[in-house]
Amino acid sequence: MQAAWAVYDQILADAPAELRKGPRGGGRDRDKMADHVRDAEGAYVRKLGLRLNPPDRSDRRAVAEFRAAITDVLGRPSKGKAPVEKGWPQRYAARRIAWHALDHAWEIQDRSDQSKG
User: Which candidate, 116, 112, 103, 115, places its Cα nearest to that of 20?
Assistant: First the structure.
């Protein structure tokens, strides 16, 4: 998780605010995409039994605390069952959260490269 977030954070920091539009002229710019990732993580944590509001992206301390709460749950011993009813098992949650952050990081990276298209 932490490696995925590190990659995501670095790509986000290096990206211009306005991203190249997609093939049909659409797509979110950097800050809208970052808000989407943050809001999704805010929803995903409920599947782990956490009731946390997503932090302001500019508040590094709050982001670190939010992520620490997630990694704490993901690191707990598990028998493959979700920690809460109708939740996600830790392994699935880790894959889903990491995939989502990396998928958007790579999209940001691709759409930041002005030498393409």
Answer: 112
Q: Is the dihedral of CA 67, 72, 75, 78 positive or negative?
A: negative
Q: Give DSSP secondary structure letters for 74-108.
A: HTS--SSS-SSTT---HHHHHHHHHHHHHHHHHHH
Helix axes 30-44, 2-14, angle to 10 degrees: 160
Q: Which residues contact 8 (CB under 8 A, 6 or more apart)?
A: 37, 101, 102, 104, 105
The two tokens of residue 83 are 């920690």
Tens-digit pLDDT profile for the chain (117 aa)? 999 999 999 999 999 999 998 777 778 999 999 999 999 999 999 999 999 999 999 999 999 999 999 999 999 999 999 999 999 999 999 999 999 999 999 999 999 975 444
Q: Report how far residue 87's alpha carbon sits from residue 35's, in angstroms, rounded to the nearest whole number.
A: 23
